Amino acid sequence: MVAGVNIHTKVAENAQAVILTDDALTFLAAVHRTFESTRQALLAARQDSQRKLDSGAALDFPSETAHIRAEPSWHCAPPGPGLEDRRVEITGPTDRKMVINALNSGTKTFMADFEDSSAPTFANMINGQLNLHDAIRRQIDFDSNGKAYKLSDKPATLIVRPRGWHLDEPRLSIDNSPVSASLFDFSLYFFHNAKELIKRGSGPYFYLPKMEHYLEARLWNDVFLFSQSYLGIPHNTIRATVLIETIPAAFQMEEILFELRNHSSGLNCGRWDYIFSFIKKRRADRSAVLPDRKDVTMTVGFMDSYVRLLIQTCHKRKVAAMGGMSAQIPIKDDPKANEIAMEKVRADKLREVTAGHDGTWIAHPLINKIAMEVFNKHMLGPNQYHVRREEVRVSAANLLDTNVPGQITTEGVRSNIECSLAYTGAWIGGNGCIPLNYLMEDAATAEITRVQLWQWVHYQSRLETGEIITTALLDKWIDELSPGIKKIAPGVKDADLSVAVDYLKGQIRKDWPSEFLTSDLMPYLAAKDGVEAKFTRSVL
């Protein structure tokens, strides 16, 4: 064992033996000891920023970095091998079957996700590392129920999304503190696979989630430089795409690119988390109350402004402006409903490619054909960096525009309750993405439902009937709907659903909504893995 490093669970021992080697843990400990204090300082800065917003401060473009935005000469790094054309990317968790199917899907890249589409049980996290290790070395093939799963000759380029800066990994501690989940995911993947990826003509590529400040991007860049030096890999080998999925980050896109410029492969419109952040960060602003989730589309004012600014920013700096996720999945037993759903996908992808995006996300392999056809027709080269969108003028007021047509309806509220309960129950049970009413739901959509329910209660919003939304009304509907959750999400267990019910009832009563349900509920996953409570900082 490595001095100061302790593993607090025996879950997935076979994967642990391959991934948690002494050399890998020594590297992880070096990264942790070098950068953990900076991470904690940046997380404290988030709280300071929130207090200022609660006191009436307005979000705006930082004055101290105006010179970076004004300087036209700097550009980001060229695409890494395999990232030159990213017109369709598939995303999903890191279980073995998903990894094979996604890499074989015909998309250009696969974002293997340790974050919002994975419930971070230790088995999921450590087996996910093993699955990617094996996929890179083309030793992942297996048989299940008489069906062979084999990697194709030309799989998609692999990109990995570690968990966000806010999350701890309580199953492994260093010097008696839980390690950063971000650094755990990144370090183990990078240590085991960076040289192998380079040898095979690719590279260590990442998606970076949920950043709120350019200094958080600087921290990632410092981690990259340190890690490349540690392994003897040339600087600027890593490539990272940042998800712009918090509203503070929308005001700092150029600064984020600047901090990562030698490792940057662009920005992505993380649309669902962005809506979640829009509500959460503006929790003290009554004018920021939004209507039903279905009404907050990509064409409403604040969403459209964010998209246009992102495309303009990326192309100004010569990197990819990636579009977002269409949550629709195929409907096998209803051809008419399936055609309606697929037409929504087609329209969404057409909106993205004609706006100037260089690629898009899908959640299901069968959606690839639609997305690929749209991008092939309208994007004739590998990207659209030449679409500079110089006509775009986006102000702070545009990004904060709360004029969203729509109502808060009985159907919308009840739908939010169902989504919140079903997803939370599934997550506690170890499943991080679930099909729900023919949409693929992950943590981001569950977060929207949670904070919307809180917001509507907090500001005594009215339904389309005129009735005020109260805790008593939501309690009644939660109790009505909870018995039917297992019908729409069959894998949810009774005990986990009970926790989800109690959690949601608690959330709608809070003065302010919790930062992340994943932080709140991590102690349940850690306890199932046999971890002592002292290693879980977030408690209910």
Q: Which characteristics define this entry?
A:
8-stranded parallel β-sheet, alpha/beta, 12% strand, 540 residues, 3-stranded antiparallel β-sheet, globular
- Any idea what the radius of gyration is? 22 Å
Which stretches are low in confidence, meaning pLDDT under 50 for 5 or more residues running?
A: none
Strand order of the largest sheet: 6-3-2-13-12-11-10-9
Number of strands: 15
Overall pLDDT confidence: 96
Number of DSSP helical runs: 20
How would the global form be characterised?
globular
- Give the amount of beta strand, in percent: 5-15%
Instruction: Kindly report how far apart the N and C termini lie.
Output: 33 Å
Largest sheet: 8 strands, parallel
Helical fraction equals 40-55%
Computed structural class = alpha/beta
Q: How does this structure look, described?
A:
- The protein is an alpha/beta fold and 540 residues long.
- The protein has helices spanning 13-19, 22-54, 66-70, 96-103, 122-136, 181-199, 214-231, 247-250, 253-259, 271-281, 301-316, 335-355, 368-378, 396-399, 410-428, 443-458, 471-481, 485-488, 494-507, 517-528, and strands at residues 5-7, 88-92, 109-113, 142-144, 147-149, 157-161, 168-174, 177-180, 205-208, 239-244, 264-269, 321-325, 359-362, 434-436, 439-441.
